[in-house]
Automatic annotation (TrEMBL):
<dbReference type="InterPro" id="IPR005804">
    <property type="entry name" value="FA_desaturase_dom"/>
</dbReference>
<protein>
    <recommendedName>
        <fullName>Fatty acid desaturase domain-containing protein</fullName>
    </recommendedName>
</protein>
<feature type="transmembrane region" description="Helical">
    <location>
        <begin position="32"/>
        <end position="52"/>
    </location>
</feature>
<keyword id="KW-0472">Membrane</keyword>
<dbReference type="Pfam" id="PF00487">
    <property type="entry name" value="FA_desaturase"/>
</dbReference>
<feature type="region of interest" description="Disordered">
    <location>
        <begin position="315"/>
        <end position="338"/>
    </location>
</feature>
<feature type="domain" description="Fatty acid desaturase">
    <location>
        <begin position="56"/>
        <end position="301"/>
    </location>
</feature>
<feature type="transmembrane region" description="Helical">
    <location>
        <begin position="181"/>
        <end position="199"/>
    </location>
</feature>
<dbReference type="InterPro" id="IPR012171">
    <property type="entry name" value="Fatty_acid_desaturase"/>
</dbReference>
<keyword id="KW-1133">Transmembrane helix</keyword>
<feature type="transmembrane region" description="Helical">
    <location>
        <begin position="58"/>
        <end position="77"/>
    </location>
</feature>
<feature type="transmembrane region" description="Helical">
    <location>
        <begin position="140"/>
        <end position="161"/>
    </location>
</feature>
<feature type="transmembrane region" description="Helical">
    <location>
        <begin position="97"/>
        <end position="113"/>
    </location>
</feature>
<keyword id="KW-0812">Transmembrane</keyword>
Amino acid sequence: MNAAASSSDPLDLTVKGDGADPHEPHWISRSAFQILVFVLVFIQAGLMAALYHENWWLVVPLVLLAGHFMHGVLIGFHEASHGLLRKNRKFNEFDGVFIGILSLTSFSLYRAAHQTHHMHLATERDEELWPFVDPQTPRWLRRMAAFLELTFGLWFTPYLFLRTFFRANSPIRNKRVRKRIWQEIIGIVVFWSVVVATVAWFGLWKYYLCLYLLPAMMAANLQSWRKYVEHVGLRGTSATGATRSIVDEGWTGKVLAYTLLHEPFHGLHHRHLGMHHWELPARAAELAPRTEEETAPYSSYRLAVLDLLRDLADPKVGPQWRSQPKSPEAPSSMAMPG
């Protein structure tokens, strides 16, 4: 696992990794985020028309599609936190802050907390996987956190990062970074206050509900489920030992990976932090396990989800749990894919 590169600029929290393969991927792969945004805008336009004409049979599938593509855009938020979404840094920052406003999360806060996820993957200092990395947390608390994050992710995820920011001994100590986080939090509050007031004034609740709230809730929950698939239940110490990856060779799997900005190749992302998402599929062979603790890639999301479900009764992450006694009536499974 690569550590984050140091920088003289305290706001430059992007991470650098290994160089990419010299082969240039197809422009369709390199333009995945822009294509996702275009498709989402097209879906939203159709959804607005369907709502105007009260065509509810069309509204339902369009809301579901909007939720999936919003999930893809949220992964773009993650790419922006690594400085990999746009070549121009200012555009990268703008996209990150804007997506953060829509997802109720400060971009600078997410970037700072997410850095701990890479620097201290699956350890007690991994802020993004709290409370599952802390052996001192009782099972009821870990179960409750899992329920809330997987069901109400749109609100629990911002809480998770705000906890990192406000708690005692926060790892985010740089005054410039904290000032910027405060500015972004205030911006989020002001933006949504204006939006909700406008919706209430003009009675646009059905548009707010179907164009934003329902698909955003779905996207946030999908984001949480994907995060859990990637890490919960694993006890390894390496990028592939603490991460589930999915390499689906079918055309549906490839399309899904494309709309998720190749995030299913998650072990490779942890191994090559500075690599663009479109370069990851070419390195899929690196996911083959080399030690007993490493997790072989799954051939589908279905198999990975089934493995995760066996761990949700007693959710844990990280090697620190190996020395802990098993929780009564909820043994943790470490099953590997066949």
